[in-house]
Every structure is written in structure tokens, then in C-alpha cells.
Amino acid sequence: MRVMVGPIRSRFSLRLRLAIVFLFGSLVVVLTSAVLLYVNLSGELNATLNAGLSARVDDIDAATGSGTQLVRQQEEFAQVIGEDGQVIAASATLDPNRAVLDKRELAAALKHRVAFDRRVPGLGDHARLLAVPDTYRGRPVVDVVGASRESARRAQHRLGLLLVLAGPALVGIATAGGWALTLAALRPVAHMTKEAKRISLSEPGRRLPLPPGRDEIAQLGRTLNDMLASIEASFAHERAFVDDASHELRSPLAVLRGELELALAEPGDAAETEQTLRSALEEAQRLQRLADDLLVLARTGRSEPAVPRGNVSPRPIADLVAGRLSSVSTGPHVVVVGEAARAQIDREDLDRVLTNLIGNACRFARHEVRVEVSRRGDMTEVTVADDGPGFPQALLPVAFDRFSRGDSARGRRAGGAGLGLAIAAALVEASGGTISASNDSWSDGALVTVRLPSGG
């Protein structure tokens, strides 16, 4: 049964399901109200009838005690019956020689007050008799009064007929009102659905129409519009990334192809061929580095929570990277200072971060690159500063974006694909840290600050 709920629900629209809920809900309310009203009216009618009979029998009881006329002339239906079944007094409309109670009823009435609902001659097919034990002149008697229940039954029947006729009408009105209310409430959803079908990436900036107010549907529309804006931004970012990557790949591929074509054009010159192959190898290595960088960005760009995967000391790694870079170039001097603090980051990731940052600083420094490791509360801070021209002001806000390069000294002609800082930022953020760029360093050059969770 549980398995069938989903398919059954999926066959009907939300409007129809809500209308069915209104139908059954109003049906339950109307039916419950009708039953309560009918029962309450019946109880009130019976209570009124019993109160009238009790008042009349109390009058007879008072008369038997005072010895006056037992049954008044205006009493339409009353008898005083002795314990032997003889009628002591009766209304003028009743036979004075015939008791209205049979022997069984008389025996019960002599013991306690009792009411009988049955056919009674003179009162009709539906009558009620109230019999109360009493004493007259020292003898046990029974005071009996009666009344027809026809008027009460007719009132009950009229109410029942009215409820039968009006109930379905009320249910229909409530269902129609629920249907109209559902249509009005879901009309904005229909408008948003139609507009959503027209939205495509070829029309950026198009949004869903929002209904007035701040209800749940309006909130849903705002949320969906925010999601569309986020998707458009992500798509634009990824499209720019693909365009930039394609552009970066095109240059080394073109050079590589040219070098190979040159080697094929002059196969007899061994020196020229060797030079051509070495140039082709450099371009192939450049392509490999670019592919590796793109792979790192793809892996770190996934929406996953930051989980540090290691606990290392940045100072020895900085010394190792500085020595490695110094051994392969005759560039500026790299100085590493600071304490032996620890940070929560994978060793290979920190090595790649420092390699990118120090290597980037070495390309622009005039004389010196300074790396400093320090402890700041529960964070370990690593700064890489150079005495070069610093970051262009236009580059600072997007310094860690992929393929971001300035147009001045720290621009394209300095080499690289503009992925070093982006990779460093991705690896640092994946470890729960932060990275920032500025020009407020000791030499007015560039300053990159990395903050990582302390490893104790």
C-alpha cells in the first residue's frame, strides 16, 4: 500500500489534491456539525417534554397530598391509578374505567418514577407517559400524565430534512471556495512555471516573476531567482575559464607545431633539428604544467567542506622550496625567517602553495624575497613578500582568480598562465585557511599572506 501512494499522488495535480482535501474536510465538518445539531435539538425537545410532564405530575402529587381535586379539568391527559389497577381519578378525555398502564407497567411505576414511549389511545402512535409513585389516603397510587411526541418528531424530521438538503450544498460551496482559493494561491506558481520554461542561458538576466507580498510562494520565487543568478555566475565563470584555458593551450600548441614542422622541413641539419626539438620539449613541458595546474584547480574546485589532511611545520618546507628555487635560477635572494609553528595542511599541498608563491615573487623581485612564518592566536601565518613593483591596483581584487594577470610589470610578459595564485588560494581554502594579497610589505612590493589553522 505504501508503494502505491507515490504513483497515485503523481496522477493528480496539486490543485486537484487540495480540492479533494477541501471536499473531505468540509464533508467531515458539515457531517459532524449536522450530527451534533440533530442530537442537541433532540435532547432539547426531550428535555422540554420531560420538564412539562414533571410539572404536571407534580401538580397531581400536590393534589393527592392536600386531598383536593386530583386531576384538574384543564388537564388533557392524566390518571391516578391505585395499586389494584383501579382508576381513582382521570381527565375528562379518558375512560375512567380503564387504566392507561398495564399490570407490568403499573408494578414498575409503584417502585420508582418511570417513562414509557409507546402508542397511547388519545395521544397517537408516538406518545410519552410519565408514571410517578404516590400515596393517596394512605394507599399506594401511581400518578400518570402523558403527552404526544408528534410535534417533537416533526421538528426533528424537518431539521433532518434541512440538514440532508443543505449539507451537500454547504459541502459544494466549501469545495468550490477551496478550489477558487487554490487557483488564486497557485496562480503565481503557474506564471513562474511558464516563465521558467522560457529561461535559457542564451538570455542571461531573465528572472521569474515574483508575486506581491512575503508569503511562502514569494519566498520560493526569490530563492529560485537567487539560484538562477548563482547558476549564471557559475556558468559565466566556467565559460571564461574554458575560454582562457583554450587560449593558453593554443599558444604552446601553435609553437610546438611550428617547431615540429620546421624540424621536418630541414631534416638534414642536426644542430637545427636538436634546437628545434629542445624548443618543442620546452613547449611540451609548458603544456604539461598547464594541464597539471588545471587538474589541481578542478579537484580543489569541488563543493566539499574544508578538511585539513595533515599537520606540518611550514618553516622547513619554506627552506626546502627556497633552496630548490635558488638552485635552478640566478634570481633574487630568498630569505626565510620565523618560528617553528605548525599548520593543518597536507605537506604536498603546502609545498605547492609555497612553490607558487615564492616562484611568483622571484619573477618580480628586484633583489630579495622574504618568507616569514609566525603564530597568530590559533592560526599560523606565512607571508611571502618581494621588493618588486607590487600588484597593480586593478589586479588586487582578482589576484587569486584563474588566469588573472595585470597589464604592467606583473603581466603576461613575465611568463606563466596566471594560475599560480589561483592554485595557492584553492589549496589553502581547501585546508580551512585564508589567503590575501596586498602591497603593504617591508619594501612596498607585493605581499601575500597565508593563514592556516594551527596544528598545535
Task: Using brief descriptors, characterize the structure shown.
456 residues; alpha+beta; Beta-Lactamase; Helix Hairpins; Heat Shock Protein 90; 10 strands; disordered N terminus
Largest sheet: 5 strands, antiparallel
β-strand amount: 15-25%
CATH architecture of the largest domain: 2-Layer Sandwich
- SS elements, strand count: 10
Distance between the termini: 57 Å
> Which value, in Å, is the CA radius of gyration?
50 Å
Q: What is the typical, i.e. mean, pLDDT?
A: 80
CATH superfamily of the largest domain: PAS domain
Tally of helical segments: 9
Query: What structural category characterises the helix and strand content?
Result: alpha+beta
CATH topology of the largest domain: Beta-Lactamase
- SSE order, one letter for each helix or strand: HHEEHEEEHHHHEHEEHEE
Classified by CATH, the class of the largest domain is Alpha Beta
Helical proportion, percent range: 40-55%
What gross morphology would you assign? rod-shaped
Description:
With 456 residues, the protein is α+β, with helices and mostly antiparallel strands. It folds into three domains: 1-196, Beta-Lactamase, CATH 3.30.450.20; 216-300, Helix Hairpins (Orthogonal Bundle), CATH 1.10.287.130; 314-453, 2-Layer Sandwich (Heat Shock Protein 90), CATH 3.30.565.10. Helix content is 53%, strand content 16%. The chain is built from nine helices and ten strands. It has helices spanning 2-10, 14-66, 103-109, 150-198, 216-265, 270-300, 314-328, 347-364, 420-430; strands at residues 78-82, 87-90, 114-120, 124-136, 139-148, 333-338, 368-376, 379-386, 434-438, 447-453. The chain has a five-stranded antiparallel β-sheet, with helices on both faces. Strands 6-7-8-10-9 form a five-stranded mixed β-sheet. Strand 7 (368-376) and strand 8 (379-386) form a beta hairpin.
